[in-house]
């Protein structure tokens, strides 16, 4: 109970739990501590390897069997956990450091997706059923979807002046990022720059972590441009962008970025 209370008091700074077994350990205490703390974070179980010259009763550690028991208890308690490539491994080894590096990435992904806000601009076009998703299921995982009408973005582009400093700066950035843009008519270059500014402003106002946008054929019919270059530049600047209202694609891109 004391350990669980300690975890509970520091839940705001705990991204994951590392269980390490230098000996057989206390299987019930490990599972009880995680459950009673109320933490909902990744758990990694590690066990020390025995020294071959210290296998007698007085010195044998038996972390090997202890890990089996701890994992069994966690499974009974319905507490998700992960293990390393090897069942037992010295903590000073390269293999253990690789396991921990992977576990830290898992913690970043789980922590980042919990409370993530995904933006969806526009609606799914009829032929693209591959991008269907359940907003309710995402909400159960702590992921919110914030929507915007594509028409609102188009209206924002129309209202934005070509002489705006933000637009000029974005046009310059686009030209440096994706040369050559000379074959593209100047007015369309300007439209892409404005679109990028409007979307980015919407992202900041709504605290969006990643987004997706309707493209074909609405974007071409209304603006005579494709958003690909602007989306690519945003992704390069750590604002993941997915095509055709593919919300799950945006979630996946954000998870990759976190990892």
From TrEMBL:
SUPFAM superfamilies: FucI/AraA N-terminal and middle domains (SSF53743). Coiled coil: none annotated. Keywords: Carbohydrate metabolism, Isomerase. Transmembrane segments: none annotated. One of its GO terms (cellular component) is cytoplasm. The keyword Ligase does not apply. The keyword Isomerase applies. One of its GO terms (molecular function) is intramolecular oxidoreductase activity, interconverting aldoses and ketoses. GO terms for biological process: monosaccharide metabolic process. This is Uncharacterized protein. It comes from marine sediment metagenome. The lineage of its organism: unclassified sequences, metagenomes, ecological metagenomes.
